[in-house]
Amino acid sequence: MVKNIWNWLKEISNFLLLIVLLAGTFSYAMFQGGFVSWFLFYSFLPFGLYSVLVMLYPLDDFTVTRKIKSQDLKAGSHVTINISLKRKFPIPLFYLVMEDQVSTSIFSTKERTQVKKMIHPWFRKSIELEYEIENLPRGEHIFSGLELKTGDFLGLFQKTRSLEEKDSLLVYPSFIEMKYQPMNVRFDQGVASTEVKIQRDSTMVNGLREYQSGDRVSWIHWKSFARTNDLMTKEFEERKSHDVCVILDRTPSILFEDMVTFAASLARAVLKRGDQVGFISSGRTKQQLPVRSGENHQQQIFYQLAKVQGDSQETIEQVLEKEVSSFQQLASCLVITSKLTSPLVHQLHDFTKNNHAVAIFLVKGSNDKITVEEQRLKALASSKGIWIKECHTGHFSNVFSEVKRA
């Protein structure tokens, strides 16, 4: 309220100053006479009248339309924004400053000059502007509106108008191509093979064998019993489940963006192989997707990863304790974190007791090395049937290169 009153008083004072200048030059021409004095008055008159016109012009007749030319974006790419301004009355404007109001999260640096443009519209009723934002960061970015500014030649009057035009831009995480190997493997570094539960597919009969105590009645092949009077049991094709559940640690970390990139790459690799994957992350908001497969499911995972932030106030161990009921019986547990702790190893050991295959992907910087404490915890985890793999930034594609089928 006080600011509005101050702006109104400032505009009135500038208008009075303009009247004084016009009156002064006119009086000088009247009393002095001659070519020079009248030339001065007539030269100043258009600028003075234009200042009055700018003062009276409210900028209310401008309408704006924003078009985001590319909607399917991933981190590191660029986007082109098209701004269309239209107005009804072609009032001459010497300059017009347009600033797109967008959340600062869209900038990888503090530089914001790319959303502020100055044009010279003059009598034009339609104006087209275009600008690009490079190196987009992951996340959801909000466009709230546009701010228009103009003024007179003398700098006495400046007009500002805010136009509401809301849009949002969702930037998906980037991903690295990697070849995923399932958890029922033997690793070169001496870690024993991790067992996962075996599921019998009752629809695929592989042969017959003699009946054994404990076999289900539904497995008995009654036709052969009728012919031979010997109990025979159907032998089914055994199928191992390669379903996985990716768990992202959302505690604050300088490597969080690298962890998101790895999570996206891992989920995509699992789905590309034809297996099913679920996703769990917990922070200020909770993301949880069931174990599924398909292109649409990958899109859902990427959508969740586009929005996650490293804002969890709970440790990953506390999150795992709460989410233990969310895991499917046959799903392998893949934890992505940048901090390896003893409580995490012990918490995940409980999952191995239930025949869950468990792996920890420890994300490190490109030049970071595993510490002595992390070496000790890695050996402890190995003894408990948990596989730990360091994943260095820039080398995510090689994570499974040393994994071979047993």
From TrEMBL:
The chain crosses the membrane at residues 12-31, 37-59. Residues 208-370 form the DUF58 domain. Keywords: Membrane, Transmembrane, Transmembrane helix. It comes from the Bacteria. This is DUF58 domain-containing protein. It comes from Jeotgalibacillus marinus.
